[in-house]
Amino acid sequence: MATVSFVGLGVMGYPMAGHLAAAGHTTTVWNRTAEKAARWTQEHSGTAAASPRDAATGSDIVFMCVGNDDDVRDVVYGEDGALAGMSPGSVLVDHTTVSAELARELGGACAEAGIGFVDAPISGGQAGAENGILTVMCGGANEHFDAVAPVIDAYARAVTLLGPVGNGQLTKMVNQICIAGLVQGLSEGLEFARRAGLDIETVVATISKGAAGSWQMENRGATMSRDEFDFGFAVDWMRKDLGICFDEAARNGAPLPVAELVDSYYAEVQEAGHNRWDTSSLISRLRPSD
Fold this sequence. Notes:
Number of helices: 13
Mean pLDDT: 96
Low-confidence stretches: none
Shape: globular
Number of domains: 2
Radius of gyration: 20 Å
Strand order of the largest sheet: 3-2-1-4-5-6
CATH architecture of the largest domain: 3-Layer(aba) Sandwich
Order of helices and strands: EHEHEHEHHEHEEHEHEHHHHH
Number of strands: 9
Helix content: 40-55%
CATH class of the largest domain: Alpha Beta
């Protein structure tokens, strides 16, 4: 068992920290909204800290899952940042989806302090976090990965080291690029089925067993057909992630024509006022207006 802290109790971090506590790890949490951290301690075995630094003090591993590059810097650096409370030999794990550039920056800052670092973005959505079956894509040194992987197992079904610091974030970019195309294709297929008069749930149950099958089809096909878009990972966050992909593509020269097109469709969903709908809401663009 490890002494750990978790910084950021959003829709993903809240249940992830809960799995750590349930697995028997001594867990301290911090959240920008203190009321949420207090609620977490009422539901789980653990304590709440007044700052990221306080949460990190005495921890073998510090986990983070916040919003974006700026949010990560806010909770890592400075007098009250997590790095100020960490001891040499401990490891910082960032589950936030951020730029590979920031991951490398954090890796360097940690190395100067004698602290390990693993960039470890996640996939699996809110349901994956709640059920403890996330996919975790890691970048870092073997020794640091080996130290944290058994603890991450508390909320993951797959934890993979993909190379040096930054490679976890690069792999998450691949994940988001693929998802963008998948969700648009699924949206078009389901709307076609609806207009053709087919029973959508039967169609999904049938074709999901064949070559068209995907996690998105299995988990979102039926809800998309019912116009239910409240499943955690918001359009705002997907556009943030795709922006990271486009910035990286500008550096490495990779063409992303489909991802760019789908990003423009997500912009339309935002313009319609549905920023907090989940990513499967792409189908809403295809439905006739009332």
